[in-house]
Amino acid sequence: QVQLVESGGGSVQAGGSLRLSCAASGDTYRNYCMAWFRQGPVKEREGVAGIDQFGSTSYADSVKGRFTISKDNAKNTLYLQMDSLNPDDTAMYYCAAEIDTRNPVCLQWVGRVLPASHLRYNYWGQGTQVTVSS
Fold first, then answer.
1. What is the pLDDT of residues 32-86, one digit of tens each?
2. DSSP 8-state symbol, 110
3. By the 8 A CB rule, do 114 and 79 touch?
4. 5 exposed, middle or buried (CB, 10 Å; 0-12, 13-18, 19+)?
């Protein structure tokens, strides 16, 4: 019902910035709890930042003060502004929208590893690669 497409990734030097975008299409009239996840090589997928239906946000401790999540409902687009990037931020970044809007819990996974069994509870984008060099 919902398709997500990420963009904005790339290669930057430490201290640089990137702005990721997630364009949504399909049943975009619904209020979804949405989040950004990231997964590095030989690593598990973890929640980076989330925003619920009411605009409340949550951030992993490792990115607080550096990343900002926001969304533009008119454009059906989710954003992740990333500043002061460091090599530890290198990963594939995924946009996710929680399928069940009646019992949203996407903020629960911010700052935590998402079990593989829970992948099916979200719509996912294809991912966009972020590489930070020092």
1. 899 999 999 888 999 999 999 889 999 999 999 999 999 998 999 999 999 999 9
2. B
3. no
4. middle
Quick one: CA dihedral 108, 63, 87, 71, positive or negative?
positive
Q: Is the dihedral of CA 66, 79, 112, 42 positive or negative?
A: negative
Q: For residue 124, give Cα distances in angstroms to 22, 33, 42, 58, 112.
A: 10, 13, 20, 19, 17
Strands (E), 10-72: 10-13, 18-26, 34-39, 46-51, 57-59, 67-72
The answer to whether residue 2 scores a pLDDT higher than 90 is: yes
